[in-house]
Amino acid sequence: MATALNSPDPSLPPRPRVLSGIQPTADSFQVGNYLGAIRRWVELQETHDAYYCVVDQHAITVEYQPPVLHERTLSSFAQLIAAGLDPQRSTVFVQSHVPQHSQLSWVLQCITGFGEAGRMTQFKDKSQREGTDRSTVGLFTYPVLQAADILIYQADGVPVGEDQRQHLELTRDLAQRFNSRFGRTFTVPEPLILADTAKILDLSEPTAKMSKSSPTGCLFLLDPPEVITKKIKTAVTDSGRDIAWDPVEKPGVSNLLSLIAAFTASTPTAVADDLAGGGYGGLKKAAIEAVLEFTVPFSARVHELLADRTYLLQLMAIGAERARAAAQPTLALTYERVGFVTLPN
Ligand code: TYM
User: What are the tens digits of pLDDT across the range 90-148?
Assistant: First the structure.
């Protein structure tokens, strides 16, 4: 894996760079976002040169209300900080504050095949749901903007959940294509996907991934404790009474075991051993406790941060400035490679 060139302390060896992003498309992140991605982002800031963004430009590819997007962007940023991202150690920012992403995206669109973009499953799913007439060109080019988010920082790794794998494949293809056509310009990034929590499942339909589009089976991090308790109590379990880790035969039980394991730094099989004999009631009680232990202080911290908008905007401005400085050299090199004329300073 290639390493990025910068480090906060020049006397230290350069650290590999990671980038990831999250959409501000709900009032709250859900447990899948946290366990599949954000939790890892927090760990990576210890060892990596980390860039994390709230991708507000991606959020306007489907229908939205401007005042709602505005609030959700602020809340998403606050949630990232409350989850443990430290703006001193990571660069945490909002995508639209860094124009280099969309500038690079245009260049990458011009090397992306129409058929290639049309094969992206997220586009196919969403455009089928919305209907072709109501689907936007922005939704179609969404994965290319995502590739630009990653390549503009020369990221070595991209920590995401399993659902992002196809977009990362496209990103790698575009980087390799550009490099072979125009000369080495981009680092080809590796996906960093956590095996145990790559796909947290819906509580009421434990074969589908947990997602905000199915609110009853989705645990939102900002849900009040009584709502979380109710959702877990009504979660689908499987036939039989055994508590065993078996994602194929017992997807509902296994999903709850994964949740508990991830929130308590254990493994699903160790949790299953601990809870054996307690029945599904005991399993659900343990799941409720494990989730609330995280969400209660998390929610309090988010509300505290949201009450001080000036401070939040200051943090955003710091992140934006650092991100722009890191993005600009890649954009300049890309423009030079494709033959755009550079003006003297
Ligand atoms: P988004 O906003 O849908 O989700 C953010 C992160 O949460 C992960 N995730 C899950 N992981 C496990 N189980 C689940 N049920 C689950 N649900 C969501 C996602 O895999 C993701 O890592 N296209 C991206 C946003 C994006 C991006 C980027 C990501 C834009 N630019 C650049 C990485 C790099 C998205 O829609 O994520």
Answer: 999 999 999 999 999 999 999 999 999 999 998 888 888 878 788 899 999 999 999 99
48 with 154, same domain? yes
Residues 53 and 192 in one domain: yes
For the CA of 197, the nearest atom of ligand 1? 12
If you measure from the C-alpha of residue 280 to the centroid of ligand 1, how many angstroms do you get, rounded to a whole number? 30
User: Would you call 126 a catalytic residue per the annotation?
Assistant: yes
Q: What is the pLDDT of residues 218-261, one digit of tens each?
A: 999 999 999 999 999 999 998 888 899 999 999 999 999 999 99
Whether residue 151 sits in one domain with residue 264:
no
Ligand 1 and 58: CB distance under 6 A: yes
Q: Does residue 315 share a domain with residue 251?
A: no
Domain, as residue range, for 294: 225-303
Ligand 1 pocket check for 200: Cβ under 6 Å: yes
User: Across the chain, what does the average pLDDT equal?
Assistant: 94
Give how many domains the chain has, as a whole number: 2
One-character DSSP codes across 275-343: HTTSHHHHHHHHHHHHHHHHHHHHHHHHHHHHT-HHHHHHHHHHHHHHHHHHHHHHHHHHHHHHTPPPP
CATH of residue 171's domain is: 3.40.50.620
- CA 301 to CA 311: how far, in whole Å? 13
